[in-house]
């Protein structure tokens, strides 16, 4: 019990330490840390509209974070969230362009499904390479991010570019405005809160159920704890590694579709970089997952925290007249401190438990043979 408490407390303390450093940076610039905190809270939660904006900003982080958590349980690391978001967004966009006249009740599920499929494909590629060719998944997912950025730039400057941009000679890399039939319904009138927020939360809950209440999740965790033991129990290790990255990519692709069809512009647009479209959601989702202890359910409040930081940063910049880079730096500080705390947390837990750190986790209590479908 004490070990679990420490495991939960360390990331929180790390974030607190990051905010203290951020407060010192504000003091150096001659600004009040208390005024800065007030500005962030007001920008993130000061009204119903701002609270909705925070929830919308957190939505892709929830999905990417839940996907990262699933991959981690199989001991594979997915750094390809940016590329998977782009893949899902592109496929969903193509579907909306090809079938603009379908009714909303058909088109909305179709574009969300398309986004999920796009992300699944891009996640499965490094999964297969890892499982069957021992290619490092960190390198392959990062490289696929770069590939997808260039592919997006090619499509948005060529085949998918808005014809009006060509006529005007501006050639901004963006699609035409997509069918309103594909727009995600607004949940609260007068705000940006849309159906995608609900989809993300439900997806995170389903990810938890899959991991801890279904045979597939047991197999993924078994592979993560000990591939050799899992193989001896009849589990197909290679297949489940592929599944882990494919499912992780699926959630990232779903986030991409929601980014396109939950936006006010209702189109796909970029400045030529991944962050120009994703808002760095692929990388921020990793941090949200780490802060949430790589648990799908805890990723939800963690993502809302980072969504609040991102939304409140605008208010911080406006009220205190500080450089925009400082708001970005504050988010980066949280990233550094949280990631650095992981090693410290593992050390403290091993000292408390007084047992080898590689001991099998207590959540694998049942014998392999008693789990339905474990021999597949």
TrEMBL record:
The chain crosses the membrane at residues 12-31, 51-72, 79-99, 105-126, 138-156, 193-211, 241-262, 274-291, 298-316, 322-344. The keyword rRNA processing does not apply. Its main location: membrane. One of its GO terms (molecular function) is transmembrane transporter activity. It is found in: Cell membrane. Keywords: Cell membrane, Membrane, Transmembrane, Transmembrane helix. One of its GO terms (cellular component) is plasma membrane. InterPro entries: ABC_transp_permease. It is a multi-pass membrane protein. This is Nucleoside ABC transporter, permease protein 1. It comes from hydrothermal vent metagenome.
